[in-house]
Amino acid sequence: MGLKKLGVRRFCVFALVIAAVVTWIICFIKSEAPSSVTAVGSMPDQTLDYFLKKGIIKVHDAADIQWYHAANSKHKITEALQDSTQMIEADVLLRGRDPKEPIMAHPPDNDSDITLRDWLKMVVNSDKGIKLDFKSLEAVEESMALLDKVRYQLKGPVWINADILPGPGGMATPLDAQGFLQAVAMKAEGDVLSLGWTTGWSPNIDNPGYSWEMVQQMEAMCKNLTQPVTFPVRAALLSQSFVQFQWLLQQSDRYTLTIWTGQSDVLNVEHLLPYRQSVSKSRIYYDLLENQISKFKSLPGYTMSQLEQS
Ligand SMILES: *[C@@H]1O[C@H](CO)[C@@H](O)[C@H](O)[C@H]1NC(C)=O
Ligand SMILES: *[C@@H]1O[C@H](CO)[C@@H](O)[C@H](O)[C@H]1NC(C)=O
């Protein structure tokens, strides 16, 4: 009897010690992870985790994600699904003639040989992520409904993009921000929202950067969202806007940047180094031209963090 009791007591003590050790290990692992405050119910970007788990990228570095652009035809989406990129970007608008349904096209085109419906049918067979770029509000609601129908078949990350605020040099009219967020935010709980400013860039002038007012306005639009948000920002306007984006990224760990370039923008990739060196590598995607990316990656400062430099 007594011996048996002793055995039970020993077992209990043993179990407690094991529990304590496991708890300690879990706490230790957690404290190693980047810790910044996340609001309840909100989610940081899972895009990198997805590609890491697949073994497609090796480290938490968003610069290793590659993009296919304007996969707006049968031929191009076929090519995109077979090449070495991880994310496929395409433009969605409502067809200019009947039947008016969401198609894959970039203005000024108003027709396409592929509808969003058929495009999604092709994408569900793939492990790649997608970024749908909306140029007008009228296609958004129907597109989100189509997306909903295949949501559980889609394997990769889904990004929903639109310019919703006027930005530096922007001439185009942004999509109505409230209208867009209403159409998208409720339907896109696990998606990454890619929310940008209209922009312009001209050669041989001092192009203005993103102002404090612009980033503050964006933060006000995004702070109540629960989704991860990436801000598409124009590479050639970034050297003038470093403190503004440093501030913006500090407002939530749901926020990332996606640096893109206009085809004919003159870009000095060295101007992107301050971003690379002082922001976590998991928080800046680079959607640049191939030669720009390789030049950027070959800069001595590319692999160095600010800490290592000083
Ligand atoms: C679509 O584009 C074509 C060619 O540019 C043009 O002729 C046509 O009027 C446009 N249709 C609509 C409905 O905008
Ligand atoms: C965000 O939430 C706060 C508090 O609920 C509210 O006062 C504010 O108007 C909301 N902002 C937006 C842009 O919806």
Automatic annotation (TrEMBL):
- Keyword set includes rRNA-binding: no
Domain Menorin-like, by residue range, is 61-292
List membrane-spanning regions.
7-26
Instruction: Write down the InterPro entries for this protein, in alphabetical order.
Output: Menorin_dom
Q: Which GO terms describe its cellular component?
A: extracellular space
Tell me the superkingdom of the source.
Eukaryota
Write the record's keywords in alphabetical order, separated by commas. Membrane, Transmembrane, Transmembrane helix
Record has Transmembrane helix as a keyword: yes
Which family is this sequence assigned to? Belongs to the menorin family.
**PANTHER family linked to this entry:** MENORIN (DENDRITIC BRANCHING PROTEIN), PROTEIN FAM151B
Name of this chain's protein: Fam151b
The record lists the lineage as: Eukaryota, Metazoa, Chordata, Craniata, Vertebrata
